[in-house]
Amino acid sequence: MEGDVMDKVEATATVRDFDPISGSIPATKVEITVSCRNLLDRDTFSKSDPCKFSFGRTEVIDNTLNPDFVRKYILDYFFEEKQNLRFDVYDIDSKSPDLAKHDFLGQVFCTLGEIVGSPASRLEKPLGGIPGKKCGTVILSAEELGNCRDYATMQFCANKLDKKDFFGKSDPFMVFYRSNEDGTFTICHKTEVVKNTLNPVWEPFSIPVRALCNGDYDRTIKVEVYDWDRDGSHDFIGEFTTSFKELCRGQNQLNVYEVINLLGPFFPSQVSLLSFMTLTSLFLKGNPSQSTSLHYMNPYQMNAYAMALKAVGEIIQDYDSDKMFPALGFGAKLPPDWRVSHEFPLCVNGWMTGCVKSFGAIYHLPFLAPRYAAAVQDGSQYFVLLIITDGVISDMAQTKEAIVNAAKLPMSIIIVGVGQAEFDAMVELDGDDVRISSRGKVAERDIVQFVPFRDYMDRTGNHVLSMARLAKDVLAEIPDQLISYMKSRAIKPNPVPVYSPSDEPPTNPV
Length: 510
Fold this sequence. Notes:
Elements: E1 8-16, E2 28-37, E3 51-53, E4 61-62, E5 73-77, E6 84-92, E7 103-111, H1 112-117, E8 122-126, E9 137-144, E10 151-159, E11 172-179, E12 185-190, E13 205-208, H2 209-212, E14 220-227, E15 235-243, H3 244-247, E16 256-259, E17 269-279, H4 304-316, E18 325-326, E19 328-329, E20 332-334, E21 339-341, E22 344-345, E23 351-352, H5 355-362, H6 370-375, E24 383-389, H7 396-406, E25 411-417, H8 424-430, E26 437-438, E27 441-442, E28 448-452, H9 467-475, H10 478-488
Parallel strand pairs: 1-3, 24-25, 25-28
Antiparallel strand pairs: 1-4, 1-6, 2-5, 2-9, 6-7, 8-9, 10-13, 10-17, 11-12, 11-14, 14-15, 16-17, 17-20, 18-23, 19-22, 20-21, 26-27
Helix pairs in contact: 4-5, 4-9
């Protein structure tokens, strides 16, 4: 509505008279990218905040009349069928999901064939739907998707960026583009904004490899760096180019890039790749870009996996002297030969802090592996293995045997079940009622504690009712399990240190 200060633009699109399930001939999957130019300005004190809806909503972009939407639409393209599409654009004035409460900016009708058949598969059409108004244009681009199903996970930092804010430093963010055959670029990712710094460290992010380069490892990837401004007039700091092949080299001097601004004075800024790995789809158990996935990386809240890590980690870290945890991943293709590894450290030396931050990229992040516990059995250390699972166990016999063997070690196992699956197998592993056994051998101790994460969520399934109660229930059995191990090995606690007055630090005379 006119006069509103809050103004976010998004758009909708729908498929009209088209059911891809009815197609009898194998379809080609194409990716549709949406941009708009010269949209109506429906707000008095700022620009529109557009959002597009196309078989779902795009992201909302603040304060712009020329949005380039990052979110893509993947459609099945049938050459022999007429596939009608409609795109609607709205200025988002509140958080209400009711479109009637937002300003309509226009709509356009086309067919998927029109987009694919246009020169360079790029169709530009005027928006309509508001009598007597020029509503701007929509630019629709299509690209056939390759067969690459891998995900890339990477993290960047920058050094000595140009200072763009008069009263502060800069609020930098990066925008990634993949190159097209006609020499244009398609936006594929935006980082978060890091406030008031010239040396930002951006969060790790995951992105489909085909979004970056569509499986062509030599294709140019352009990266632009901006200083964020509230009014949408972001200041251009500079840019550089790379390729997926170059990024695969990981952190080294070859992946340190000069940030160049050809229109302004030269400023010695650099962006460096901190980490890089690819995850093979064979082991990826959920698409983090889809809201229906348990692994969905919502920009506004943590997913169930991350919330469980945070709840347990914030309590158990107090019992670790250096607050650092061996963090292992599995199911990733690692350099230099890019073979799939089922056990690898998440950084160069196998140790890292900030497990929750890295979790979004790794999907399954145990704090510790039994191998560590087997190496230290003198009672000087006790280990906790955290397993977060959706409840599906395909190797129950091997799992039982592993737990029976682990019961001899100085360790406990916490299992947090996420999602709505049946957790009968997890309850069996818990062993509270019947001690777990394998091949006729009964576990020496009960070392497993299982809790279903859904018991701690509200009715919407979006918020934890009590992180403290979750942590308490998850960790409730750890003290008794620790004591049972120490007693079974006749390990006694170290004597309490006796301090004398001479141990006290000297006080400053008044």
